[in-house]
Amino acid sequence: MAPNNEYSRNEMMDFIDIEPLDIEICDVTLRDGEQTPGVAFSKEEKMDLASELDAIGIEVIEAGFPVVSSSEKETIKEISNMGLNAKTCCLARSIIGDVDAAIDCDVDIVSIFIALSDLHLKHKYHRSCSDVLGCSMEAVEYAKDHGLKVRFAAEDATRTPIPTLQHAFQEAEKYNVDYVSIADTIGILNPSTTKYLVEKIKEKVHTPICIHCHNDIGLATANTLAAAEAGAKQLHTTVNGIGERAGNAPLEEVLVALRVQYGIENYDTTHLNGLARKVEDYSGLTTPVNKAIVGKHAFTHESGIHVMAILEEPRTYELFSPEMVGGVRNLIVGKHTGLKALKGIIKDMGNSLEHEELCALMEKIKNCTEIKRGISRPRLEEMIDDIRSCKRDDEI
Ligand SMILES: CC(=O)SCCNC(=O)CCNC(=O)[C@H](O)C(C)(C)COP(=O)(O)OP(=O)(O)OC[C@H]1O[C@@H](n2cnc3c(N)ncnc32)[C@H](O)[C@@H]1OP(=O)(O)O
Ligand SMILES: O=C(O)CCC(=O)C(=O)O
Question: What CDD domains does the database record attribute to this sequence (predicted)?
Answer without folding.
Answer: DRE_TIM_IPMS
